[in-house]
Amino acid sequence: MGSLLSACRINVEKKKVEEERHLRANDREYNLSFMYANNAIKTSKYNVFTFLPLNLFEQFQRLANAYFVFLLILQLIPQISSLSWFTTVVPLLLVLSITLAKDLSDDITRHKNDKHVNNRKVEVLINGELKSEKWMNVQVGDIVKLENNEFVTADLLLLSSSEPLNLIYIETAELDGTLIKYTISILYISGEVRCEPPNNRLDKFTGTLTVRGETFALDNERILLRGCTLRNTEWCFGLVVFGGPDTKLMQNSGKSIFKRTSIDHLMNFLVMFIFGFLAFLCAILSIGNGIWEYQEGNSFITFLPRADGANASLSAFLTFWSYVIILNTVVPISLYVSVEILRLGNSYFIDWDCKMYHVKSNTPAQARTTTLNEELGQIKYIFSDKTGTLTQNIMTFNRCSINGKSYGKKKIDFSWNSLADSKFCFHDHKLVEAVKSGSPEVRAFFRLLALCHTVMAEEKTEGELFYQAQSPDEGALVTAARNFGFVFRSRTPETISLVEMGVPTTYELLAVLDFNNVRKRMSVIVRNPEGKLTLYCKGADTIIFERLHPLSSKLMEVTTEHLNEYAGEGLRTLALAYKDLDEDKFEEWKERHHEASTSLEDREAKLDAIYEEIEKDLLLLGASAVEDKLQDGVPQTIEQLAKADIKIWVLTGDKQETAENIGYSCNMLREEMKEIFIVASNTAEEVREELVKKMSPESGDEPPIEKSRFLGKKSQVVEDEKVNGEYGLVINGHSLAFALQKDMQLELLRTACMCQAVICCRVTPLQKAQVVELVKKHKKAVTLAIGDGANDVSMIKTAHIGVGISGQEGMQAVLSSDFSFAQFRYLQRLLLVHGRWSYLRMCKFLRYFFYKNFTFTFVHFWYAFFCGFSAQTVYDEWFITLYNLIYAALPVIGLSLFDQDVNDRWSFQYPQLYAPGQLNQYFSKMAFARILLHSCYSSLILFFVPWAAMCDTVRDDGKDIADYQSFALLAQTCLLIVVSVQLGLDTYYWTAVSQFFLWGSLSVYFAVTFTMYSNGMYLIFTSSFPFIGTARNSLNQPNIWLTIFLTTILCILPVVAKRFLFIQLKPTINDKVAPRKVPRRRISTRRSGYAFSHARGYGDLVTSGRFLRIPVKTRSALFPHTDTPVADSTPQTYRTIYEGAQSP
Fold first, then answer.
1. Which residues lie in coiled coils (predicted)?
2. Label partner for 228 (CA 20 to 30 A): which of 23, 173, 177, 558?
């Protein structure tokens, strides 16, 4: 067996897990001994030989496809087959062919892309000469040369570049969206590298380079990743560390979490139920056959002799399988293919929506997945980041506190500074005076801002500086220092050059203690020209205050008051501190820092411990405050979503006061709320006490929990409780850590879900994901997470639906999302329009699909009682074959792609229309049961009315037409017309395509019927077309058309009557909206210059009938923003829909 596997080149041994990578520069023979992957990539799934078998294997793993193969095998058995083989083969081949064609097209595209990438050329240093090689031939350890604007071949360790001091500029848009960043290269072209094994961490690299016995630490700043592009750099050399499938780009392109909608899970359950129901029907009919054979079968032995050994029991057994074949249409073979077509079409509608296109950034909306569209219409909870999602993430330096004094009141002139940024604006001339007068604290403050950062400076012409910052915060702070006379001019790996009040000054850069989400601070250690060592640190105030020297306690109290004031204005704050260092202690610390930085194991943990040692006993300088303005349309969008009964939770890393005031500015928190709970405790018990809130007199001490099985998973579900009034909840990260503990998380969930708005501040990326998972696990609700940065990725991946905003923080959120666009305001159109339409269309499609199939099948069931349970079909075999493929396929596709109950304007006008999706009202197990009953009734009419009409009936010329073929034609014609009329009743929005599909399908039916029942087809294929002349003999009789009309009326009348009664007695939200559709008054296109500069009008107040009451004063917006029309080019008004019987 082993030799056989070896002959087939199948590796029976598991590949040894790589624990550490070891390579030598420019030594192919040595590096090939480790059998590292080369630089060729393969994203395709199939090749010429494996495509057909592998693809068919994948398709037959679907239960419905496997079932129809089983049916085909049954039809090949003469004793039980009552249908021709083509009735199963034709639909099966069509379904398989559509999927084959789709997968083949996708894989051909992947092959072309792979070939294009693998055949790119790059210069490789081989035997001391640069030779042109294809990318796929590049090996680990090779030294390659890149030129300006070239793509990076593999993951490279940079060795040298054409730029001064070996700096390079790269575009990393394919990885994280950053436009430009810099990397410091190493001036060596030989040596040995030991580093981490291949992984998908884009922000982390750990390794060492050993050259001539000296070891250097390698980190992410020395690595150039595949997927980047070299910019503004003539050339550079790099050492290949990871190639092909081992590169971080390819490691990140693995399979993402497969998300399935609640309708998907429900469909799987229903398909399994249908299998059981089919078996039940077949069992009843087989029992009937056994009874009939036992009681009546002997009467037919003379002209229908039985086979030897045949009896009633054997006949019943064979009949069971015969009816499995006949009733197979109850199992929807084309369901999944049709659903995919529907989802794909609705995804294109999102991509093509011009009203979600952001002109300024040239960014259209994008549906990055095609499997979640209808779930956009069922969202109950939205989890949103703040910075860059609700706000613009464009920072301006507004306020500061220095040595206990607050600045930032009046606008000042910076014309005295020739290197000032003309766009910078600050409001306090006293600060300029303090800088000019030589205040040591003020100058130290701005010196820190000019030194403690990772910004890169470009000066193309004298005096014109351009800063490239990895975050808008850093850019704003460095720009502020520049305008106040401390100009950051340039940097090298060892120095930072400033212009301090016109005097050029160079500082020696000794260490950078970089920022991360855990440390929440950044420090630099520099030596000034006089030789003095200083550590400068900036970070979150809670982090900095913990590390201050006792001498700064009084200053900390004053600064805290200023920070609270700034946060109350909605500003983002940072605390700034410094520390003078002793030379000897620093040298000792530097040695231990070098050991930690060159460690291959737990490097990050060791470095954090080293950083903690030196970042102590700091002296406080002050605090900075930058403003991040709200995006256009955010308050209006949140208000609209709240009216749709969607609860919005903001998860942010900002201070509590900042987050709280953002809540007021966004209309999440309002003064008229009954109470806003603040949870900011330091112990678990205190948090528990603060979480127990009485918002309803009926509330018990424990949260109401129901054992549930939602989306296929067993879980404890916290039930919704009625609340008296509207409440808000604000909780900080420290308290949230306690509240997320297992014994307290359900209490947190109960309290939070009873609140209209929830704001979690000072939270980490992990806590964001935990909060989303908590709601997702313990609520019967669909969740959506929206963010714009890398710290939102875990939250986006955890939620049922993830939405990424392409903003200032790169593209990592977008790359991990299911849907993406440029502005938060587009979210309401995505949900209230596209989401609601997609959900409505999907539910209509499923209801109609099951109705037409069950009605078709049940007619067979009733006919069995009149044919001795002999497994005789009631329809022509060609009608059975073409019913789901042609006659009833395109109309339902037209319905499910273009139907809409109201247009997009009315969707915004009445956001309450969104509620049915949240409650699963349009399609559920109960709705499926109603479909079964409706189909049962329709099938009774469709069988018994034609049967009674045809019984003992003659033509108008006296000839008999009461034969099986005429009855089959009448029954199938009645069926097709009834299901077509039913589809017409279900269609709200008629388009030319819908009309064409419906009338075209009926026309095709009659054309095909007259053709197949013609003399010519009978003469050519006698055995395949036995219904010769049936169509022309039957359909020219008035009584046949009268029967069709009567059958249609009897099937449709109950549906129309039920809808009429429900509209009168129990109207839905849609029914309440429909009568309000009045012609719109023409709105003038002329607009004044101040049309959108005012606060929101009084539309709600006037239409509610409460305009005589004194309105409650709401808190004014603290964040200036420009109101733009959100959904359309016309102003929007909002009305309230009352659920009671009375109108407003």
1. none
2. 23
Instruction: Tell whether residue 973 is among the known ligand binding residues.
Output: no
Cα distance between residue 26 and residue 128, in whole Å: 9
Do residues 173 and 181 lie in contact, with contact meaning Cβ atoms separated by under 8 Å? no
Q: What are phi and psi of 81, to 5 degrees?
A: -80, 120
List the beta strands (DSSP E) in 631-689. 647-651, 675-679
User: 786 and 385 in contact (C-beta within 8 Å)?
Assistant: yes
- 532 annotated ligand-binding residue: no
User: pTM of the prediction?
Assistant: 0.73
Task: For 949-980, write each residue's pLDDT tens digit.
Answer: 887 776 666 666 667 888 888 999 999 999 99
Collapse the DSSP code of 85 into the 3-class scheme (helix H, G, I; strand E, B; otherwise coil) and give the result.
Answer: coil
688 CB-contact burial (10 Å; exposed 0-12 / middle 13-18 / buried 19+): middle
State pLDDT tens for residues 175-184. 544 444 445 4
Q: Does residue 626 contact residue 396 with C-beta atoms inside 8 Å?
A: yes
Distance CA 910, CA 1120 (A): 28
- The tens digit of pLDDT for each residue in 201-242 reads 777 788 888 888 888 888 887 888 887 888 778 888 899 999
> Which residues belong to the active site?
385
Sign of the dihedral through C-alpha 290, 295, 300, 302 = positive
| Residue 762 is labelled as binding a ligand | yes
Q: For residue 458, what are its two tokens?
A: 């470009």
997 is in an annotated binding site: no
963 labeled part of a ligand binding site:
no
Residue type, position 672, single letter? E
Residue 60 banded pLDDT, cuts 50, 70, 90: confident
For tokens 């605090």, name the residue.
623
Assess contact for 194 and 22: CB atoms under 8 A.
yes
Helix (H) or strand (E) holding 137: none
Instruction: Give the list of residues 6+ apart from residue 114 with CB closer than 8 angstroms, or none.
Output: 41, 42, 43, 44
Query: Residue 454 phi/psi, 5° resolution?
Result: -125, 25
Residue 1013 scores a pLDDT above 90: no
389 carries a ligand binding annotation: no
- Asked if the model's pLDDT at residue 1098 lies above 70, the reply is no
Q: What is the mean pLDDT of the chain?
A: 80
- 986 assigned ligand-binding residue: no
1009 marked as binding residue:
no
d(CA 421, CA 685): 52
- Identify which of 271, 284, 273, 285 has the alpha carbon closest to the alpha carbon of residue 82: 285
The residue type of 938 is S
Per-residue tokens: 333: 């073979």
3-state helix, strand, coil in the chain (%, to 5): 45, 20, 35
User: 298: exposed, middle or buried (C-beta count within 10 Å: 0-12, 13-18, 19+)?
Assistant: exposed
pLDDT digits (tens, 9 = 90+) for 1029-1084: 777 778 888 888 999 999 999 999 999 999 889 888 888 777 777 644 444 444 44
Residue 996's pLDDT band (cuts 50, 70, 90): very high
**Is 427:409 a contact under the CB 8 Å cutoff?**
yes
